[in-house]
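Hey, sorry to bother you again with one of my protein questions. There's a protein on my desk that I can't quite get my head around. No rush at all, and the record is pasted right below.
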Amino acid sequence: MSIFSNTSDRLSVLANFGTDPGSLSADIYVPKNFPKNGPLVVVLHGSTQSPDDYDIGSGWSTLAEECGIALLFPGQRLTNNMIGSFNWFETGDSQRGEGEPLSIRQMIGQVVDDHAVDPSRVFITGMSSGGAMTSVMLATYPEVFAGGAIIAGIAFGSATNMMEAVMRMNGFGSPSDSRLDALVQGATDFAGPWPTISVWQGDSDTTVASSNAASIVAQWQQIHKVADKPTRVETVDGFPRKVWCDADGRVVIEEFIITSMGHGTPISADGVEGLGEEGKYMLEVGISSTRHIADFWGLTQGGSAATDTPEVDDAA
């Protein structure tokens, strides 16, 4: 179901990636300058979007060509969900070894093998239902990912049926912080080190309430054993960025709350570093979540925010 009037000609189909119990599609983009042992980013679209739509809007393949990054775009089928959403709240599609999470894990394994990806440099991001499924993947396969970025998403385990999903999206009934921690801890027997987490949310989002960002941060604060209070608060491209560092000074969680932004992925399409294309759920606000997320993961020449040293004088 296309949002945009044009479609990408960059993505190619990934076939024969496993048993595919979630019955998902898979597209990839591997630029010509992709190096041996290069990184992989898994990109999950939102409801009513396709992988092509999300790629065009977010600019991921443009950045991939610039920086030598392989991309994997899992896709939902309308036969699985009538609005093309990932089924992040269904029991059979939110557990390790089952349904959509297992399909995505199988895709990742195939791309890593086919293109000599460094298995320690696999990352995942998504928006809306794709953001919620990103939470699922980070919790159920934490050993696979070095980092994750959740845009307008939901904390893992917050809902187990459609009614609960709607309530959580509207900001009602989120589990307690201790329960959020227990949900991730109980998803696998993994003991760490855990993926770094980037959280993005519009404060005027009427589809996924901004309180969900706080729940995601709280869930991963418990996992990463960092304080409730951020290590520092700074301004990036005119928007507040909160940062939490671990005991070694490594940034393990960041949060961007984009003022006056509704439901969608923040983009900045103009200028020499512009990426993406404005459209439905792809919102021109003057900051590129794609570029900043890649910076955070150390995938661009700009450096890695995850190696910042803590500065506590301006903590809020």
Residues 12-307 form a domain with the Rossmann fold fold (CATH 3.40.50.1820).
